[in-house]
Structure formats: structure tokens, C-alpha cells
Amino acid sequence: xxxxxxxxxxxxxxxxxxxxxxxxxxxxxxxxxxxxxxxxxxxxxxxxxxxxxxxxxxxxxxxxxxxxxxxxxxxxxxxxxxxxxxxxxxxxxxxxxxxxxxxxxxxxxxxxxxxxxxxxxxxxxxxxxxxxxxxxxxxxxxxxxxxxxxxxxxxxxxxxxxxxxxxxxxxxxxxxxxxxxxxxxxxxxxxxxxxxxxxxxxxxxxxxxxxxxxxxxxxxxxxxxxxxxxxxxxxxxxxxxxxxxxxxxxxxxxxxxxxxxxxxxxxxxxxxxxxxxxxxxxxxxxxxxxxxxxxxxxxxxxxxxxxxxxxxxxxxxxxxxxxxxxxxxxxxxxxxxxxxxx
Length: 342
Ligand code: ADP
Known about the structure:
Elements: H1 2-12, H2 16-33, H3 37-77, H4 94-147, H5 157-185, E1 194-197, H6 198-208, H7 210-215, E2 219-223, E3 230-233, H8 235-251, E4 257-264, E5 268-275, H9 297-302, H10 309-319, E6 325-329, E7 333-341
Parallel strand pairs: 2-4
Antiparallel strand pairs: 1-3, 4-5, 5-7, 6-7
The structure holds adenosine-5'-diphosphate (ADP).
């Protein structure tokens, strides 16, 4: 019994000072009111005894609660629980139970997020290595063939050099896109938002694409919006968005037109890049914004694609609090659009 008492008192020891203070005050009051010592002494003794029993009861309760909490923490550490509802404490600890459940949920979500990031990082690295290997191997192959005699073969030497040159171009595109995407994703690419004249900004980019379009005999048309329409955004980054959308529109169109529209709405201006190209199958529409996702890998590489263009577009447009919409029909064409605040 004494062992139990002293073990329990260990847990209620933190209240000892308060109990001693209370007992002293009570005993002092009794002493002042009752002068007969043979009554006061046993009373004081009884008060002390009750205090001890009281402390022991509190200690017992605390020790049970603490071991309950310890057990829960141990189970969390050992990944014993699969869901927060499995964490249960006795009724007196219900508010703590709620807090622990919330902490458990948060920790679980954080761990899952970190695992996902780690998986994405590994996949990204694997993709980058694969993407780099393809042009490097091709260039290496052409150079080796040329060195081992093909250089003197008038029928193939120029073609091989041209092919090697096209792969260096792909390599260069890939490195540029990788630099952009890593700057965006690391948060290094700071946005600088202000109002700018959307018609002027788009006209300049469209003009730059005229040689590329006329080389493929595609008509490139620009339909400006309301005169002097000012939209809110980072002009430089949005330029990259339009460059990527126009590059794709021209790359994936064999004949017909590529058009850029500016539409004026009450609160937003809408920018549309529309082509009459090969289109995108419905099943692929959700995935084309993923890094390195291409509908047709061979075709994308052939036209100098990196598989990163639309991922960059998505990041930048989302940083403007907007979303890229896409409509497409295989064989008929595609339409990419997004809104900007007025
Ligand atoms: P890529 O460098 O391969 O063009 P993107 O990220 O820009 O990579 O685009 C991803 C894929 O989406 C492309 O490989 C292509 O299959 C498809 N795509 C993008 N834009 C168009 C378009 N205007 N018309 C048809 N397909 C497109």
C-alpha cells in the first residue's frame, strides 16, 4: 500500500506546494479559532492524511492518463494506426484526443506529400537523363559513322551532318526548357505583375513567328481585342507562354491557319491560340501539361519538341491565378486559351 502511495505521489508531486500551502492556511485558521490543543492536533493530522490520500488519488489518475498518452505516441511512432479514428483516449482526455488525431492527420499528409515529391524528383531525373541521352547518342552515332569513312561519301555526309545538327538543336531546346522549368519550380522565377497593353505585346510575338509559319505555308493571323486593352500580368513570362503555344501550334499543323485572338470580357481578357493542326486525342488532353508527356514522342522530337513546353505554360498561367483551357479534335485542330485579369 505504501509502495502504491509513494508511486502515485510521484505523479502528483507537482501539486505538493499548493496542497502544503492550503493545509498550512487551514491548520492556522483552526489554531486561531480553537485553542484546545487535544482537538487541534488530531484535526491537523487528519487534514494532512486526507491531503496525502487526495494527492495519491490525483497521482493515480495522472499516471493512468500519462501511460495512455505514452502508449498512443509509441503507436504513432511505430506506424501502428492506419487512420485517425483509431486513436482513442479516455473521456477526460477527449480534447487532447482531437488534437492528437489532427496532428496525426497532418503528419500523415506531410509524409505522403514528401514521398510524392521524392517520387517526382526521381522520375524527373530519370526523364532528364533519358531525354539528354537521346540526342547525345544520335550525335555521337553520326560523328562516329562520318569518322569511320562516311565523311568521304558524298551521298550521305551532308545528310548525317544535318541530322547531327538537328539533334544539337533539340539538345539546346531541352537545356533552355530545363532551365526555365527549374527556375519556375524552385521559385527563382519571380513574377512582376503590372498592367500592360495585351494587343501590342501579342502583335510583337506573332510577328516573330511569321518566318516559321510562312516556311510551312501556314497563315498566321492575329485578331487583336479592344484598342488599348490593358491586362494584368507579367509581360515577360506571358511572352514565354505565347511563344510556347505558338511554337506548338505551328509545329503540329501541316496546313491551314494558326490564329491568335484577344477577347474582351467584363472582368477578364481572354487569349486564344487556335490551329487547324493534327489535334490531340481526348485521352491525352489531361496529360499534355505533365512534364515530358507527348502524344507522339517521335513526332515531337522530329519537330524539336522537348515535352516541357506546356508544363512551363501551365506553371506561368497558374501563377497568374488562371488556368489553361484546351479544346481539341484529332485531325481538325486545337485551341488553347487562358484568361487574364483586367
Ligand atoms: P513538345 O515539346 O513535345 O511539343 P509540349 O509540352 O509543348 O511538348 O506539348 C506536349 C504534347 O502535347 C506534344 O508533344 C504534343 O503531342 C501535344 N501538343 C501540344 N500542343 C499541340 C497542338 N497545338 N496540336 C497538337 N498537339 C499538341
